[in-house]
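Progress report, Aim 2. The chain analyzed during this reporting quarter is listed below.
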Amino acid sequence: MSLASAAADSKALHDSRSFGDCMGGDCPSIPRKLLYFAAHPVWPVNSGARLRDYHLALQLAARCSVTFAEMRHTVEDLWRPPEDSGFARVLTLKKGRSYGLYKIVRGLAGPIPVTVLNCWSREMAAKLEDELGSRRFDTVQIEGVHLIEYLPVIRRTLGRAEIVVDWHNIESEMMWRYAGTAGNRLRKLAARRTAKLIERAERRLLETCAMHTVGSERERQKLLERVPSAKIQVIPNGVDAAHYSAREIVEATRRSGLRDSRQSILFVGSMDYHANIDAVMWFSRTAWPEIARNYPGFQFTIVGRDPPPEIRSLASDRIRVTGTVDDVRPFYASAVASVVPLRCGGGTRLKILEAMAAGVPVVSTRLGAEGIDAEDDVHFLRADSASDIAAAIGGIISSPETRKRLAGAAREFVTIRYDWSIIGERLYRIHCDLVSARQSAPSRDMH
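Predicted structure tokens for the chain:
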């Protein structure tokens, strides 16, 4: 299923459910209008964060009226999602340059970390306030700690509207991990300082917002250790299983003109993200030489937007660097295995769920598979050292039985547990419960 067809399905569900009996007034506790607020554009969907936000917002738009508030850098082209996505409106806030010298210095001095300053401006706050003042929203979903400085605006203009904070990652944890791998001493110090400031902002968020959603139970427990009274539920990352079905992959491969060779080791991920850069460079230096020597007919393929010079320099007759691609499915069709050799970063890997849905065996480090309730040697192969990664990939290449076993179990696993439609319904119920609790509060106060 393409994103366009997913949007069409969303509109059909929107028509059949949102404007059914409940929207006619029989179900007063459902949210009728919802603001979905993210620090990046809704479209195009070319990163893990955008993929999560687009699909969660799409699922909510199938059930109530959703205004998507996005942020775009002034140099970014203005893209709009498909007209049949189901969004009532897309509000665009223009943000300035990230990590400018002034923001870095101000961020390190505190109390606001630079990652939050990158998303804040008085102009954006004023435009958001105008939007909120002219419309009534029942609930608001904000995407992460980077938007914390807008909470006063939201509360001042929306009053009793409940706020759901969706945590793509525990950002302070990611920053601490980055500090551990940064090669430059000044970068380490800056990362540690930033991590401490993000932790303070995260605690404030946990203490002041009604509900929080995280990608995994591990992250939920981590946050509850900080603030035991916080209300936190797990809304994992998902996958559009139909989009990666065997039929859809065959058709996408036919349209692309690529060959279904099954002679590629595949890495998929945004190549402007430091954790992905580190993973690819480490794998290329350590595990790939052994794989390339033992299996001379195979190629390492790196698929992802904006590869930096060090990644582009890897390109050779045995390593392919694609940059941005229109459709990743033909690359899954040519892959015998998908490798996720991550050593830093955080969150749940959409790239693993996609590979599993596409029927491609996955080899991942422990950190790479973090947050996914998959079993080693059942749904994927865990390997943390270069030699173990090379051995795992070698086993997949040499054993059709292993490939079939892993691919079949993983495909069934993600279809049942991680399809966006299942996850979207769970998220919608959270918003419904918040509206219901707010509406019943006055009657409780009278007794």
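The CA atoms of residues 59 and 421 lie 7 Å apart. The radius of gyration is 22 Å. These observations will guide the mutagenesis work planned for the next reporting period.
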